[in-house]
Write a structure and sequence with these properties.
This protein is α/β, with parallel strands linked by helices. It contains 13 helices and 16 strands. Strand 1 and strand 2 form a beta hairpin. Bound molecules: pyridoxal-5'-phosphate. The site of pyridoxal-5'-phosphate has 14 residues, from helix 5.
Length: 428
């Protein structure tokens, strides 16, 4: 197939996500991905330092995952998941549950991170409905992001993303993100709302709020929040869509906790970053509230591609790679490199808020933070020109690489950032 003029052909018909189509540059046409590298149609190579929107784990085109998907496609590519099941779904469920907090015992499949969160909320709300209890309130962090469908927008920050729909979102109670120093304030806000006895669930991105600007908070704080919610019989949902599968240094952010969530959400790295799939897990107690002779207690939710066998095969293959390649050791190595880079950044006056969690390092260029910061586009272009894909969140710069990234590639990314910081004074 001719790759000729892909960008121009794209511009005739395609509407891209999170893109002001009038002013955006022509999209870069990628014709190959291998390891951390993306190659465009001009032969230029980019290091994917953000794992293609936080999805890729072991590198692009990983042969083991590609092979497993191909084998699965030749055997069973898709089958309705109501009234039917298949080995990849059963095996992925078994293997995943074995890695999660031991109270998690049921798996519900969907298509992406937003739907994993939608399912979680509907599960929590219907759980109380089925029990005949009046609990309709949901609590979330003020700066959270759980996706772009209406339910997911409702539990996400009220921001530029949600503004055109503000009057149509359902009401959610928000509490401040408990970043270091703000914990007591968050606990107080939370307890005030929980006391009403009407709270169905609290949903959180555990330890790391990605879209909010890679905000981080401690496991001890989240443990206290979960315990507080449980004191008032409120369900806790942890959205591990970003944090799952090693990003925070452990397999799951919940591995840092002693308290256990009631419901968990997964996507992105679930398939190693190969295929779209979402997954919501719950305790047996929640599941049992839907068991009844009364059909009205059924969970009436599903998607055409629920538990798609190709996605499940990719998920299984990705878990195999974790073992075959000792991926958690690679993750630990990335964290060590980031910590070394953080020390260099601490000494740099252009930078504030340097923080590291597992494979993620983040900081602000200048003071404060805002999504529409005027440095954002210039920084993005600067890195693209140097063959590094970094996608700043406003003036927050972060690195979130595939786990196969080499020391030399990480150094290239660090150097590009340091060059930018050195050039900044000429930008004003
Ligand atoms: C924590 C979290 N939840 C949910 C989502 C939504 O996932 P998706 O884009 O697959 O719908 C995202 C996406 O960035 C996310 O970071």
């Amino acid at each position: 197939m001719s790759q000729h003029n892909l960008s121009q052909r794209d511009q005739k018909h395609i509407w891209h996500p999170y893109t002001q189509m009038q002013t955006a540059a022509a999209p870069i046409a990628i014709i190959k991905g291998q390891g951390t590298e993306l190659v465009d149609d001009q032969g230029k190579v980019y290091i994917d330092a953000i794992s293609s929107w936080w999805t890729n784990l072991h590198g692009h085109g990983h042969p083991h995952i590609a092979k497993r998907i191909a084998e699965q496609a030749l055997n069973l590519e898709q089958v309705i998941f109501a009234g039917f099941t298949h080995a990849p779904a059963v095996e992925l469920s078994e293997q995943l549950l074995a890695l999660l907090p031991d109270n998690q015992n049921r798996v519900f499949f969907s298509d992406n991170g937003s739907t994993a969160c939608e399912v979680a909320m509907k599960m929590a709300l219907q759980y109380w409905y089925n029990l005949g209890e009046e609990r309709r309130t949901i609590i979330a962090f003020r700066d959270s992001y759980h996706g772009d469908t209406f339910g997911a927008m409702s539990i996400s920050a009220r921001s530029a993303f949600t503004l055109p729909f503000a009057d149509l979102l359902f009401r959610v109670e928000f509490v401040d993100v408990p970043t270091p120093g703000n914990e007591e304030e968050t606990f107080a806000q939370l307890e005030m709302i929980l006391r009403s006895g009407e709270v169905a669930a609290f949903i959180a991105e555990p330890l790391l709020l990605g879209t909010a600007g890679m905000l981080m908070y401690s496991p001890e704080t989240l443990d206290s929040i979960i315990s507080l919610c449980h004191k008032y019989d409120t369900l806790v949902i942890l959205d591990e869509v970003l944090t799952g599968f090693g990003r925070t240094g452990k397999m799951f952010a919940s591995d840092y906790l002693t308290a256990q969530p009631d419901i968990m959400c997964f996507s992105k790295g679930l398939t190693g970053g190969f295929l779209p799939m979402g997954l919501t897990t719950s305790t047996e107690e929640i599941y049992e509230a839907f068991l009844s002779d009364d059909k009205m207690k059924t969970f009436f939710h599903g998607h055409s591609y629920t538990a798609n066998p190709l996605g499940c095969a990719a998920g299984l293959a990705s878990l195999e790679v974790f073992k075959q390649e000792d991926t958690l050791a690679k993750i630990a190595q990335i964290q060590v490199s980031h910590e070394g880079f953080a020390k260099r950044l601490f000494a740099n006056k252009q930078v504030t808020g340097v923080r590291v969690l597992g494979t993620v390092i983040a900081f602000e260029v200048g003071e404060g933070g805002s999504y529409f910061h005027n440095l954002r586009d210039r920084m993005y272009d600067y890195f693209i020109e140097r063959g590094v894909l970094l996608r700043p969140l406003g003036n927050t710069l972060y690195i979130l690489p595939p786990y196969c990234i080499t020391d030399a590639e990480l150094d290239k990314v660090y150097t590009a950032i340091e060059d930018l910081l050195a050039d900044l004074t000429n930008w004003q």
